[in-house]
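A further point concerns the way the authors explain their paired sequence and structure data. Nothing conveys this as quickly as seeing an actual entry. An entry of this sort, consisting of the sequence and the corresponding backbone structure tokens, reads as follows:
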Amino acid sequence: MAELNEINVRLLELSTALSEAQEATQPLGRPSNERFRDNGWPIDEMFNLTQRVAEILDQLAGTATERRASADPGNSMFVLSTYVRLLDMYQKVFGLVQTELAQTDPDEMLIIASEGVFQFWKLPNVNIGSIPVNSTPSLAMFLTAQLADNFLGRLRKATAALDASLRNPKDATVNGQAGAGTSATSLFVDVSYEMVKNREETLTKHLAELRKELASIIPMLDCDQEE
């Protein structure tokens, strides 16, 4: 769990700058937090942290399957708390993006390397193969939102695998009633997983709406949508 502790510390650091941006009354510019002022808030690092958490979940799911009888619900809750922190971060990031999108002239979103749009963010590079490509702010953010959805799908599968691996056959429900082997802690974990799934669905819908908004101002994507 040492790596998860390290990830949680970094998530808290990144989240602080997002909270400051949410509380600001003026449109987003460069982050006020000195750690991110030069390059922008690192969405690419958020994706890297997501990948690391998914890999840890995969490892834990395999371990829990082999040692199901001794599986520790406390570890499961710690993993879930990290996942919820990531979900909250994605919600904050793309909520801020959607707010900025509503405040920005659509024409400015189509200017390659525009300095007036999405200054707050350090976006992943857009490449064709191994070749970097200059893109409009709207296309870069559209691809970033698409990548976010892909990462969340990866994380969702890993979490579902861990959930399944931690369940003991004796804990199965019968006619809606908990099995004899079900503990109060196990039930709490089950409820927590259900709450996480609801948050996943909300975030997935939010990302779909954002991609639709961005696609509507990108000519080539707007044509594809109409077809």
